[in-house]
Write a structure and sequence with these properties.
two-stranded parallel sheet, globular, 13 helices, mainly alpha, binds tryptophan, three-stranded parallel sheet, about 350 residues
Amino acid sequence: MFGEKKVLYSGMQATGTITLGNYLGALKNWVELSNDFPDYERFFGIMDLHSLTVRQNAAEFRKNARSFYAFYVAAGLDPEKNCIYYQSHVSAHAELAWILNCFTYMGELNRMTQFKDKSSKHSDNINAGLYTYPVLMAADILLFQADSIPVGVDQKQHVEICRDIATRFNNLYGDVFTIPNPYIPKGGAKIMSLQEPDRKMSKSDENQNATIFVLDDTDTIIRKFKRAVTDSETEIRYDEEKKPGISNLIDIYAVMTKKTREDVEKEFVGKGYGEFKLAVGEAVSSALKPMQQRYAELLTEKSYLDGFIKANDEKAQYFANKTLRKVQKKVGLTERIR
Ligand code: TRP
């Protein structure tokens, strides 16, 4: 809660370019959440500090971060009604993260499954930032006194550790933080790799055909779907265990066309995999096309985007600093002389 208003908070790590998985798993839901949470203050961070846990090329990273902002807006997230801002522009994130580091146990961080996964993947760069990633994420959420955190299932553990840290802090210092709840959107499909459908679609997949990027052109999208790995049967039927490839395609088609899995099965009774894959590719590319056009326009309207970035940065700073000052006072840091 912030004043009278409840707060919704989410964000995405600003690494590489947005995938179909990021879009369907997060961004699309955020746009629709405006309906479910109309009276909430809504914040969406572009988490560029989190991105630094993996080595970035500076020029590319900067360009991608801009692209994230433009695509959020192009996808329908209205920057007048939703505070879309850069995490690195609000220094309170880093400051609160430091304080919370001192209220988080190594034993807790050792249990984080994402840390274990990432450190096995990047065994050449297991840095301290990767380890304390969940603490920075807790700071993101707690700074805004957020009530509801829409995230994918894979981030639930991070919201839980955030709740633990907040509860511990509140027990010591009184009610400083709102305890946040994860909100796993109903339609939030988990999109899998097109090449290894038992793994999540990932932007860093070596296999070019495994991942759809939201900025891919129509030919590329259709080609990737045509090459999607399926199974040796012929029936278009949902069965995550036995038919992970087809099931993933059913899910993608279903969310893109707002149909249920059963509707999709019915629509394709007696039809072949080839025809189905083409239909999925076409549905995806025609849904993305208007966003891609808007995106291209936005990148040319520099001052238009800059205006929102500035206003929203300032709004986020205002909210975040309020909480930070309170925390600094509670833990006994010396007050500033004004
Ligand atoms: N860790 C999240 C992810 O990878 C991104 C994130 C960072 C986030 N801070 C957050 C999500 C705060 C929700 C709230 O998807």
